[in-house]
Fold PNPLA domain-containing protein.
Amino acid sequence: AKIKLKKETFCSLNLTMMNHLLSSAVALAALAQAAEQDVCRALVMSGGGSNGAWEAGVIWGFVNYGQESDFTYDVVSGVSAGAMNTAAFAGWELGTEKEFAQYLSDKYKNLKTSDIYVDWPFGKVQ
């Protein structure tokens, strides 16, 4: 039996394959760089709403009161609120952890609940 694929399915498969290839290339580059070092440091952030703000404070404390070189991360990962922090972290170069910590801390200082949770225009969904 022959399998017929629609053009949309083929394009979707190509995008998925490209995404996997790109992710693999990035991971391999990170591993190659880490292999040249004696230590590979990872930062994993959890989720849970306001835990994101707590994580920002912990990172700020680490880089401002610890040895800066101890908090240069090779790998960063997170879920939920931690994923938002991870996404923000991805925009900063190695060696700028102190600036990143201040940036993230400032973002949470100015964040209000109404910036995150918005009431439905027609009331609660039941």
Notes: The chain has a mean pLDDT of 77.
